[in-house]
Amino acid sequence: MRIQDNIALLNNMEVSFDQFREGELVISCPLVPNINDKGTAFGGSIAALATIYGWLFTTLHARARVKDCAAVIADSQLTYHAPGKGRISAHCSATVPAKFFDRLNECRNAKLELTVELFSTGKENKSSINIATYKGIYVAMPE
């Protein structure tokens, strides 16, 4: 899946898809070009990274069971905790419930609620801090 071809913003943000292994997904982007006038991560870039993370997580898990499946966002909330001063990454430790897959196997829409944690590397890339928490509801729809 090459979503950068369909969503130009991801190219401008320089989003990289770092890992999707055993259900764990990690995506990230550099501070520059996602910087604001204060020299920290732009809130809109953090929100975009979190939103696309949830969509991608839902899509990848749904398509593991149903090849022709689309996903959409239904609701979201983002809470900022600290300024990002380095590379921004998104992580989720959600276990996809069996009910999600059962509904897809029945050719029915399936809802997935996710909590995504966003981190930024600190000075000299030695540590990372939690800069935001995103909660999203996505719906996978078999086509």
Low-confidence stretches: none
Instruction: Name the structural class.
Output: alpha+beta
Q: Could you give a short account of the major beta sheet?
A: 6 strands, antiparallel
The overall pLDDT average reads 91
List SSEs in N-to-C order.
HEEHEEHEE
Strands, total number: 6
Describe this structure in words.
It is a single chain. 24% of the residues lie in helices and 38% in strands. It has helices at residues 8-13, 43-63, 98-105; strands at 16-21, 24-29, 69-80, 88-91, 110-121, 128-142. Strands 1-2-4-5-6-3 form a six-stranded antiparallel sheet. The two termini are 17 Å apart.
Topology record:
Blueprint: H1 8-13, E1 16-21, E2 24-29, H2 43-63, E3 69-80, E4 88-91, H3 98-105, E5 110-121, E6 128-142
Keywords:
alpha+beta, elongated, single chain, 6 strands, 3 helices, 6-stranded antiparallel beta sheet, 143 residues
What's the short story on this structure?
By secondary structure, the chain is an alpha+beta fold. The protein is built from three helices and six strands, in the order αββαββαββ. The two termini are 17 Å apart.
